[in-house]
Amino acid sequence: MTQAEESFSLYLHIPFCRHRCSYCDFNTYTTVGELKEVYARALAAEIRQVAGEVRRPAHTVFFGGGTPSLMSPEALACILDAVRESFDLAGDAEVTMEANPGTVDEAYLAAVRALGVNRLSFGVQSVVTAELALLEREHDFAAVVAAVAAARQAGFVNVNLDLIYGVPGQTLRSWEESLQAVLSLAPQHLSLYCLTIEPGTPMARWLRNGRIAPPDPDLAADQYELACGLLAEYGFVHYEISNWALPGYQCAHNLTYWRTRPYLGLGAGAHGFAGGYRYVVVKQPRVYIRRMQQGAGGEFPLSAAVAEAHQVSRREAMSDVVITQLRLLEEGLDLVAFAERFGVSLDDAFDGAVTRLMGWGLVQADNGRLRLTEKGRFLSNQVFYWFV
Amino acid sequence: MEQSKIRNFCIIAHIDHGKSTLADRLLQVTGTISEREMQEQILDSMDLEREKGVTIKASAVRMLYTAKDGETYEMNLIDTPGHVDFGYEVSRALQSCEGALLVVDATQGIEAQTLANLYLALDADLEIIPVINKIDLPAAMPDEVAQEIEDITGIPAEEVIPVSAKMGTNVEAVLEAIVNRVPPPEGDPEAPLRALVFDSHYDSYKGVVAYVRIFEGRLTGQDWIKMMSNDVTAEPIEIGIFSPAMKPVDELSVGEVGYIATGLKTVRECRVGDTITLRDRPATEPLPGFRTVKPMVFAGFYPSEGEDYALLKEALEKLQLNDAALVFEPETSNALNFGFRCGFLGLFHMEIVQERLEREYNLDIVATAPSVRYEVVMAHTGEVRIIDSPAELPDEGQIAEIREPWMHVQIFTPEEYYGVVMDLVMKRRGEFVGQEYPAPGRVILKFDLPLAEMIVDFYDKLKSGTRGYASMDYEFAGYRASDLVKLDVLVNKQPVDALAMIVHRDHAYHRGQKLVTQLRKLIPRQLFEVPIQAAVGKRVISRATVKALRKDVLAKCYGGDVTRKRKLLEKQKKGKRRMKMIGTVEVPQEAFLAVLRLGDDD
Ligand SMILES: Nc1nc2c(ncn2[C@@H]2O[C@H](COP(=O)(O)OP(=O)(O)OP(=O)(O)O)[C@@H](O)[C@H]2O)c(=O)[nH]1
Ligand code: SF4
Ligand SMILES: [Mg+2]
């Protein structure tokens, strides 16, 4: 495939939230809501600038945040128009929007659906009131039920729900309760994230001053195993370390990341990987807007708002393949393709790491594909760090 | 300078009572240092001294002072460290002086090292001038403290000089007192040279620079010198004085303090305490030297990265040039590979050396828990083996007796902490010797205590138990036989030499249990279960298990932020590289100091 024919995924970052959740260290802001409309125009400008004259094929679009569902349909239209104008967006392209329950109603979702969004991802996190309060989420489970119902009414077939485990105070039972409750909403896709307490978040402070207990890794492991078992019963395919889908509903956008395929990161703080670069866009919305209003872009895919970019070295490319593709539990890593691309076997490239890890039962190879074992799934860092 | 116009004095005090600050003021008032050159605690020239605010090495400086009587005097000041680990520096300084300023903090009063240093000064026959410092502080109690001083020294409270070194208040009075009360040095200027080396430092151009006090005769820059203990001769590169920078002079004469840049390449050739004389006109008898300092505390120092071994060796050699008390020899360990067994004066000294290695030589060090030096009497031969590492202890069956160093300890405390101090000392096998009440509300408790019990967080416990009020001083008492055993630690069934320790039999079970508990917390979970055991002889007395690791994931891939993920993995990898391998178990370097955290209560 030549560069021009290669199909891209587009990640579009919306850096606005109403309130910052206690665990959140994403690039999001709660005090600059008035910038939304200008921001949408800046984002549209960035899309056009990056694309330039070439109308490259694209097959997924993902509005991530932040809270994309805070954007008006008009603002979203402005952005999606730029996408369609600048890229050759496939007819069956997957267009996802992250949304927070409590920010959407049926009319809004219908409007969004009409713009071409065909997949919704709701941040549910938990159904237990105390846990939601600790996470400082602004919704309750009733809002989730209403949001999913509204989505269905508005014609969304493909709905993802996010949950978090490893939350202080959460038990195996309360976790199961959350799982059962979201399953009752019949989602097509589930993302289950283990809470990481990031430095600088309120939660990190609470941990320091003893307001919350340190996370118990064994409980998290039990919770993970419980989810694996339960979701299998419900017919979900565990296709990535943290993601489950009903057959046919794997997230095409995220698969781009995990297959080490190119994606464009657009919007404040977005990360991209294309044209041999990994790059990140400036984080501050105001700076981002100013840069897009004033500057000219660089070579593809670098816009005027890119803060840092580096060309991926051969070594880094090899390691990227491992730390992305091994996340795909079913597909795994194609050892033959690796050897063909880099001219060296994975095991040789990393000083016998594959052999060693097989010995420890963390990975296994069959039919030329390397996969994490059941034991390796929840210990993936122990595998990956041999490849960095 | 005419001999009668020379005054040699030192400043002694408990740690932090303000010696170095008072020295600053004296330098300033005498114009030795201009306002422009002035910085705080100017005599503390080492980075580490400046940062810790603590004097580590003694230093000497010459000042000229025109007194109220209109005469100009040469005043040689020797600043000394206050920490008990460096007490030997104090005793050396004292021998080179005729007088001592005894500085006492007006808010703290007399403390353990005030007394210890006072007695040393009285032994050396020095004229004592008591000075109460920090009178600017609101909590100052100059009258009470002056009374305390009178009670203890017999010097009338009215003769005690109240000052604020910080503000410069009343500093002239101190200089006048030195002129009027400290006798000028004695000694025959025409006799053959006898100069006492009271300190030294190493300079890469000038070789060993000996700090000397001339007791008899004189020395010019042209004279060849001879070291009286080993007959080493040298043609000095230069002789001079400290003002406070090194300043060459043509002659050093009886009574004066200065330096001789010997050009000698090792401190062994020019030892502190030795007497320097003239090659061509030697004296017959050396001056009384100092007691040689013996290291009391030993620990293994290993480079974190094995390849730094040669660098560590070089760094230790260099440090030794300026730190005669530091000793070291190569050592190997199954867990830590190649390193050095180092001997120190005390834990503080050890800490200073470690910090200097890390800071001045940019080395990353793993230090094993400190140990003392044992005498082991062998069962069949009666031979006495000296052992300063638990790993060297022979099997129990071969040992007739183990002796360990004991210390005489004096603890100074407000009376209300009597019980706390007693309790602490008794838990550590201490023996009560006696008590004194030097001042109302204060008590000096005297104990004998095994040194091994003092080197692990004793001082911290004493300080925290008495809310910082207690102070202590100690000296070596002698070796005594004790019922000691070796406590082995096994990680994944493998004994780890660097974790072994020697403990009293009655404490073995308790210590073993604590050590194992600590290690369980410090050793990260691995891919497999890791048993940790403490054993005496072949008998396991305590065990714990580090459970197998079950979770190590980065669940979320932050919108395609692979770079961030890579950074986290790289960090993790770096952390792992710093670990030491015991068989297949990765053990973090902190684990080797776990022994230090075996408090008495928690
Ligand atoms: N308020 C006040 N503080 C003082 C005075 N003299 C010294 N200090 C402070 O007391 C602390 C210790 O002073 P140093 O001069 O370093 O004490 P030292 O006796 O030389 O200490 P070591 O060398 O560590 O034994 C410093 O923080 C000084 O600033 C004083 O007259 N008044
Ligand atoms: S909704 Fe998401 S992006 Fe917004 S604050 Fe909460 S966790 Fe952060
Ligand atoms: Mg000092």
Strand order within the widest beta sheet of chain A: 7-8-6-5-4-3-2-1-9
List unreliable stretches of 5+ residues of chain B.
none
Mean pLDDT metric of chain A: 95
Q: State the total count of DSSP E strands of chain B.
A: 33
- CATH class descriptor name of the largest domain in chain B: Alpha Beta
- The count of DSSP E runs of length 2 or more, i.e. the number of strands of chain A, is 15
Strand order of the largest sheet of chain B: 11-10-16-7-8-15-12-13
Spell out which ligands are present. guanosine-5'-triphosphate, iron/sulfur cluster, magnesium ion
In CATH terms, what is the architecture of the largest domain in chain B? 3-Layer(aba) Sandwich
Quote the distance from N terminus to C terminus of chain B: 62 Å
Percentage beta strand of chain A: 15-25%
Q: Strand pairing plus helix content of chain A: what structural class? A: alpha/beta
Keywords:
heterodimer, A: 388 residues, alpha/beta, TIM Barrel, Arc Repressor Mutant, subunit A, 2 domains, nine-stranded mixed β-sheet, three-stranded antiparallel β-sheet, 16 helices, B: 602 residues, alpha+beta, Rossmann fold, Elongation Factor Tu (Ef-tu), domain 3, Alpha-Beta Plaits, 5 domains, eight-stranded antiparallel β-sheet, six-stranded mixed β-sheet, 13 helices, 24% helix, 34% strand, globular, binds guanosine-5'-triphosphate, binds iron/sulfur cluster, binds magnesium ion
Quick overview:
The complex is a heterodimer of chains A (388) and B (602). Chain A has 388 residues and is α/β, with parallel strands linked by helices. Chain A is built from 16 helices and 15 strands.
